[in-house]
Amino acid sequence: MSEAGQSKESDILAYAQKIYALFSRKDAEGILRESEVKINDYSKAFGGADMKTEMRRYLTEELFKSNLEKLNPAALRAVAVGPTKNIWHVFNGNDELIKEKSSDGSTSELAVYIGLLDGKLKIVR
C-alpha cells in the first residue's frame, strides 16, 4: 500500500458517513472511485486480476439487492489500527460500517478501513 498520512478521528467519521451514503444510494461508481487504493492493491496481490470489475459485479449483483442496515451516527466509531495507527477501521456500533440483510434473512458485513493518502481520505482495505 502507498504511504498513509495521519488524520483526525472526526475527519474519518465524517468520511465514513460519506461512504455509507454511497452504499445507501447504491452508487457503484462512487464506491469504486473511493476504493481505488484497495482495488489497485488487491489487483496486485492477486496477480493482476481485474478487481474493479469483480467489485462492481459484487456490488450490483449481490450487495445492492439486500437491505442496508441503518447508520446510527451517534454510534459511529473509528479504531486506529496498524503499527503506526494511521489506518482506521470504522464501525456502526458493534457492527461493521456496511452491514446488509438478504431477503432470506442472512446477513453479511463489509469491513471498511480508511486512510489518508496524498492528502485525501480513501478506503484502503
What does this structure look like?
The chain is about 35% helix and about 25% strand. It is built from four helices and eight strands; from the N terminus they run H-H-H-H-E-E-E-E-E-E-E-E. It has helices spanning about 10-25, 30-35, 35-45, 50-60, and strands at about 65-70, 75-80, 85-90, 95, 100, 105-110, 110-115, 120-125.
The biggest beta sheet is recorded as: 5 strands, antiparallel
Distance between the termini: 10 Å
Rg, nearest Å: 14 Å
Q: How many domains is the backbone divided into? A: 1
Secondary-structure content class: alpha+beta
Based on CA inertia axes, which overall geometry fits?
A: globular
Q: What is the string of helix and strand elements? A: HHHHEEEEEEEE
Measured as a percent range, the helix fraction is 25-40%
Beta content: 25-35%
Question: How are the secondary structure elements laid out?
Answer:
Layout: H1 9-24, H2 28-34, H3 36-45, H4 51-61, E1 67-68, E2 76-81, E3 87-92, E4 95-96, E5 98-101, E6 107-110, E7 112-117, E8 120-123
Antiparallel strand pairs: 1-5, 2-3, 3-4, 3-7, 5-6, 7-8
Structure in a nutshell:
With about 120 residues, this protein is of the alpha+beta class. It is built from 4 helices and 8 strands, in the order ααααββββββββ. It has one domain: Nuclear Transport Factor 2, Chain: A.
Key features?
alpha+beta, five-stranded antiparallel beta sheet, three-stranded antiparallel beta sheet, 4 helices
